[in-house]
Amino acid sequence: MGHRGKFISFEGPDGAGKTSVLTTIQELLAPALGERLIVTREPGGDPIAEQIRSVILDRKNQAMDVRTEALLYAASRRQHVVSTILPALENGQLVLCDRFVDSSIAYQGAGRKIGEQSIAEINHFATQGLLPAKTIYFDIPVSVGLKRIAQHRDTKKIDRLDVETVDFHERVHAGYDRLINQNPDRYVVIDASQELDVVVAEALTAIQAVAPEYFE
């Protein structure tokens, strides 16, 4: 599929700080790019997809079956792709997305032990094969990420995925490592244990390398 725009996803385990990095990057790029920049997130990024997000992350839904959860993520993603990402790409915009298919493969496929191939298949159906031009991965040891979460999260904001075991987060991290090995050309790996400004600078360099036409 040829698109006029560029699609870059941001991935990382819990506590890597990718959302903070993306917020900072949005503040830095928005003045110059204006409406050419779209910053979005998953699950969510569209009113219907956001409603599905609230169901997935609601702590009252502890009884949710793992395959139900995986299908809800894929359903949310489908709506997001059709209503937000594809129109932006067709419009020539630069799309920066906080999480995409790789998150489902790592969290549901590896973390929940459903099977990475199964999750890849339902998401291929959901996205019709759409993948980012580049995926910026914020790498951090599980112990460091979880320590950051414990220090920074307001207990009222802790969602269903934050209360998972260390083993779960280790499986997620290993799932990401496999994805990086399988897709070396798509991934840019950044050491997220560095200072925020260093991580932001490296991420900006990666964005400019894959989408130079927005920075001429």
From TrEMBL:
Q: Which reaction does it catalyse?
A: dTMP + ATP = dTDP + ADP
Chain positions recorded as ATP binding sites: G12, P13, D14, G15, A16, G17, K18, T19
Keyword flag Manganese: no
A GO BP entry is: dUDP biosynthetic process
* Ranges of residues in domain Thymidylate kinase-like: 10-202
Q: Which keywords does UniProt give here?
A: ATP-binding, Kinase, Nucleotide biosynthesis, Nucleotide-binding, Transferase
Pfam families xref list = Thymidylate_kin
* Coiled-coil regions listed in the entry: none
Which CDD domains does its entry note? TMPK
Q: What class of enzyme is it?
A: transferase
> Which GO cellular component term is one of those annotated?
cytosol
Which InterPro entries does UniProt cross-reference here? P-loop_NTPase (IPR027417), Thymidylate_kin-like_dom (IPR039430), Thymidylate_kin_CS (IPR018095), Thymidylate_kinase (IPR018094)
Give the EC number.
2.7.4.9
Among SUPFAM superfamilies, the record links this protein to: P-loop containing nucleoside triphosphate hydrolases
**Gene Ontology molecular-function annotations:** ATP binding; dTMP kinase activity
Q: What does this protein do?
A: Phosphorylation of dTMP to form dTDP in both de novo and salvage pathways of dTTP synthesis.
The similarity annotation says: Belongs to the thymidylate kinase family.
Name of protein: Thymidylate kinase
